[in-house]
Amino acid sequence: MEIFMKNIPKSLSDVDLIRGLAEVLHTEPFHDGTSPLINFQVFLHRDKRGNFSHSGRGALTFPTEDIAEQFLDVYGSSQRPHLSCDIGTRLITFTPSRNEAKEDVLALIRSTPYIDPQRAQEQAERAERFQETIPACGLQFGWTCLDNVFSIEWDGPTSNEQYTLSFVDETRQLQIDIPTDTTESDESDESEESDESGFRWKTRDQPEESLLVVLRFSRVESIACEGRYTSIPAVLMTLKYPPSFEKVTTHSDDFGYGPITMRYPIQFLGPSHESVAPFTSLALRIQFYDYQDLATFEEMAELAQLPPVYEITSPSVHRSLFSEENLDRVLNWIEGFEWTIAFQLQGILNDLMVDPVELWDLHEQIGLMKATYSVEKLAEILRLFKVRLKTWSWDGGIDEGTTTLADCLSQTAADVTATHILLRNQSKNAGFFNCHHVTLTPTRMILEGPYPDQSNRIIRQYPNHQSCFLRVNFTDEEQLHYRWDRGVDGATFVRERVGNTLKRGIRVAGRAFQFLAYSSSALKEHAVWFCSPFYDDDGEYVDANIIRSSIGDLSHLEFYPAKYGARMSQAFTATEPSLTLTIDEITTMPDIERNGSCFTDGIGDISRELANKISKSLQKRPGSRKRFYIKPSAFQFRMGGFKGVLAVNYKLKGMDIRLRQSQSKFRSLSRDIEIAQVFYRPKPVFLNRYLIMILETLGVSADVFIKLQDEAVLDVENATKSFLECAEFLETHGIGTSFRLPSVFINLQKLGVGLEAEDCNFPLDDVFLDRSIQFATNHVLRSYTLVGVADVHGYLGPNEVFACIRKQDEPPFCVKGKPSNTHVTLNPGDVRFVHAIGLPPENSPFVHERFYNCLVFSTQGDRSVPSMLAGGDLDGDEYNIILNPELFPSECHPPAEYPPATVKVLNRPCTIDDIADWVAEFINSNILAGCDSLGLVADQFLVLADQSGEMCRDPGCIELAQLASAAVDFSKSGTPVDWQTAPKPRYAPIFKPDWSVGEVDNRSSRFKIYQSDRAIGKLYRRIDLTDADRLAARQARMEHFPRQNWRAESGLSRAIESMTTSGPTQLVLEHPITLALCQPLRRYIDVGAALPTPMTTAATDGFDAYASELRYICATCTLTTTPLAEEEVLMGTIASKTSQPRKRQSQMAYLRTQSDELVKRIRMVLRSGDNQIDPESPEQDEDLEESLLRSWAAWQVAVMQQDRFGAKSFGMIALAAIFETMKEIDERDAE
Question: Is 1169 left (phi over 0), alpha (psi -120 to 50) or beta?
Fold first, then answer.
């Protein structure tokens, strides 16, 4: 409806008028605070005389008559309330218009959200400014040398056409259009031809072509101008990551219309660029025709908020560092070494820290090292040398006392002590192995490792050939999942880059590797396994085909490539070995099924005796420090062709195991039980956007989520005030477990040590700990995530569950009542009410087996409850059980149906090439549909729910949920989902809710951001996540990480020497923790006595080795081009912002695995002494007092070296060892 306005002050702008109206329209009584903000349009009539911007009259259009009439009821009379846009006593008059509202205006305001007019005006002006293009006369890629000279290694094609630079604000990119150089194209009269990147086209209707270099603004590190008086103006751009290269084709369609433009990612810009592209893409030089073009570039760069342009005087020359001759020379030399050494040398070159000439200049020094050191030690020296080279780029210079690459290499060799080699030895725990990693980006091959990673059945079969296996990741240049701009044919690139690589294999440091297989979890991270042929311990030849054929009999799946690959992946699931069973101990039995619903899908039975034996084997295995505070009742396992969960059945006796038909996937002779996960502790429930949106749809008020958020913030604040509350916080979140922080903090509290704000005997003012606790923050509900198991005894009635929660050092409690149960993907029906029976009656099976921290589902009823929860089953799926009544929905949506997906079938037996093609298609599907922050469709679901009055019940949301479910099944069905028909949000694509901006706000004018009134929008706006803490931690790291000698300085050496002559130093004795420790320690050792020289030397060497490995972890687990802070490793978290949170979770998993293994090995050094790590030695034979003395020495070293990187976390390891050893001595003496 249209309303007529008059008496509008002529000095009032349309922006001020809109804002004044919005102030009242977006508050009560017009807006209830939950629905989207009312949109409207203001049109001001022009002043015919042209003296003012408008005539004082205009039209106000509302989306509905109800809103317009409500507005007129309040503001349509002369006695109306005052508006902020009214000036003085002259009020704007609002009356019904004689004109009907225009249909196009109504359609616009009904389909778009309200946008602040000032922001919209600024965005429009900014977008108009970015329409300008800049001509350039040349493009060069090269290398910035140590003397700051830019070496030109590749010149762009020369032609009569000019280069064109475009700053594209909507995608935050600088695009450099390169004219086609015909000298780089293949000329052929054939009807079909292909270029060097594998793209084929018909020549009968040859499209216009050009090449494109795309630089994301976020990847630009610096911009330098080559003086103001050079003959050809030029700028040098240094990048954090390589740009993207694309081929652009423009042609008419089949009907003569057009033009149609398509962009195809490519790996290089032509044959001459192919060999240098992997090495020279981080520095480029752009030449301009004149200084006016250069000035325009600088203005546009400032507008785009790129780094400021500075002036340099160093020249740009052609040094041919990456010539074919130099590359061949150094690569041939590398391939002459043993492979573990060659891998590190290739990694140094590929890591872009040195050029081929610089690396070749070290060949004599490395040759002498090879003659001096073992292969193992030289490989370690080179691995750490790469980390040392990275510190040069982090520091902006060379370490003190190091002047050349040769000096740096020599210093690194001195740092690799015997203790360091012991820390790096292959783990005695067969569940882990030192894995070599390869990351393939569009332009590069990045080599990392080896570092500890979980092993699998296949890796363990060849313990002496584990270096023949590679984990290969496919990523973009930032080592994130692929992501494509609109108009870019990324799917074709994935088929070429991924599919062809899997079919052809790769060559790494002179060794050829073949695609082997994948695990289901790793494939979600776009990672697969490769292997190199070898001869096993019996002299038998082994390659990828032979390994695959040994997995089991998969002949019944040979026409189904997706299922074939999925079943084969069972052998590559990350597991720990447990036991080997005889055939007599294994029984198969049918599933419990009813009405087409399987109530035992994926779960089998195991006797308590066998379950205890598995638990004991996992805890007592050499190298393992697992400790289960309960006897676990459920295990996720793999055994030959069986998979799923084993849950204790109290009726089974002896070494009995019974598997169901739903657990059998293929035939195999293997009887080794491999454990993927032990379910022994309850996990917290985290609120994610999907769960919040669905609960709000079902009637949970936004105020409830706000209250929970406030409580979470308060928990964080309290955690910084008390060691006891901090320990509880860390234990709840599973943070800092590698360093035993919860236990350390509790013990410190008992000794009277407290944080600065506490009333205690020994206040500890430690900025490092404060920052560490800040890094540990997260939001958690007072609810639990539990693995689902089945009531095979049939005791529970339909829709009943049994859940008994038991935390460490707390009494168990049984859930009773009507909790909410969820296993959410995207469907509102994924939240159900169940009935928890509470304390089990005497006649129930749960008196015999409590199933601590499991959720037992009924096997009664018409349909299994897990199948109603996102189509779940019992093969390891975990379910959220919400106990907070405030989060109970007022109603439930009907559960969704999840019919089996149609399986893709071939008309011939599939080959490994079919599996390779399927992997490529899986990655393409995953880019679009992953049900996480990466999933474009999942994000579309949230946006549509945000914009719809029905929220998640909107038919479009239901359809998107069904499509997402089908996409999840793609990993087994092989049938892709057609996303082109997916429902679209109600508003135009340029309108986005504020919460969708994400962690990394790219400040683009592409989107018009509106304020969401949904719960997730309110939560988003209540906490402003800044980088203050992250920057503070980074600054702290830079204060002690870079520019320091890696060995102890002379003053520190004298202090350590005093430990062997006169006892602890004054610095140690004055430390608050030492003051608190001395009294209890005196019951076991003489704390004031001098320590034996070998013990202090071992403690110092242990710290040096630990610090070196910690640097490596910080360098390899980061999400950015800068290393992690020590605090992040201590807490096992990564604070850096990323556009792909799932990548953070993946990196955090690697971080925790590596830090956990490092801490375990350091603790073994402290326990065993004599620089020996022998976890197989019986613990009862250990001299506990001697171990305590070594830990005491380590604590003193940590305090004396407290200004060095790694000292604080090393001190936490020492404290954990001290407290644990004192407890063991007390237990021993009490026997």
Answer: left
Q: With 60 as the cut, is the pLDDT of residue 1053 above it?
A: no
Q: Between the CA of residue 59 and those of 600, 721, 1083, 1092, what are the distances in Å?
A: 65, 58, 88, 91
Total residue count of the chain as it appears in this document: 1231
Angle (deg, nearest 10), helices 324-334 and 339-350: 150
Q: Does 903 score more than 80 pLDDT?
A: yes
The tally of CA atoms less than 13 A away on the side-chain side of residue 832 is 23
For residue 123, pLDDT over 60 is answered with yes
* Ordered DSSP codes for 963-1018: HHHHHHHHHHH-----GGGS---SS-TTEEEGGGG-SS----SSSEEE---SHHHH
Q: Which of 1216, 293, 1205 is nearest to 747 (CA)?
A: 1216
For residues 1098 and 1171, the answer to whether their CB atoms sit within 8 Å is: yes
Closest listed residue to residue 1095, CA positions, set 1063, 1049, 1047: 1063
How far apart (Å, rounded) are the C-alpha atoms in residues 1136 and 289? 40
Amino acid letter, 1124: L
Banded pLDDT at 397 (limits 50, 70, 90): very low
> For residue 206, what pLDDT is reported?
64
Report the distance separating Cα 1039 and Cα 1045, nearest Å: 13
Among residues 647, 682, 634, which one has the least CA distance to residue 813? Answer: 682
CB 945 within 8 A of CB 954: yes
Please choose, from the candidates 635, 633, 631, the residue with its C-alpha nearest in 3D space to the C-alpha of residue 616: 631
| Cα–Cα distance measured from residue 606 to residue 647, given in angstroms and rounded to the nearest whole number | 6
Instruction: Retrieve residue 523's tokens.
Output: 């494939």
The answer to whether residues 136 and 288 touch, using CB atoms and an 8 Å cutoff, is yes
Can you give the pLDDT at residue 535?
Answer: 95
List Cβ neighbours of 254 (8 Å cut-off, separation of 6 or more): none
SS3 728: helix
* All residues at 6 or more sequence positions from 437 whose CB lies less than 8 Å from its CB, including other chains: 447, 448, 449, 450, 451, 470, 471, 472, 473
> How confident is the model over 461-504, as pLDDT tens digits?
999 999 999 999 999 999 888 888 878 999 999 999 999 999 99
| Residue type (1 letter), 769 | L
Q: What is the mean pLDDT of the chain?
A: 84
Residue 1048: per-residue pLDDT? 35
Distance CA 880, CA 608 (A): 26
Q: What is the pTM of this model?
A: 0.83
Q: What pLDDT score does 1221 carry?
A: 92
Q: Is the pLDDT of residue 366 over 60?
A: yes
Banded pLDDT at 53 (limits 50, 70, 90): confident
Q: Which amino acid is residue 1030, in one-letter code?
A: R
pLDDT at position 1178: 43
Report CA-CA distances (Å) from 1213 to 427, 664, 702, 729, 771. 19, 44, 43, 19, 18
Burial class of 308 by CB neighbour count within 10 A (0 to 12, 13 to 18, 19+): exposed
DSSP sequence for 248-297: EEEE--TTS---EEEEEEES-SSHHHHTTTTTSTTEEEEE-SSHHHHHHH
Q: What is the pLDDT of residue 347?
A: 96
Give the pLDDT score at 887. Answer: 87
**Cα-Cα end-to-end distance for the chain:** 87
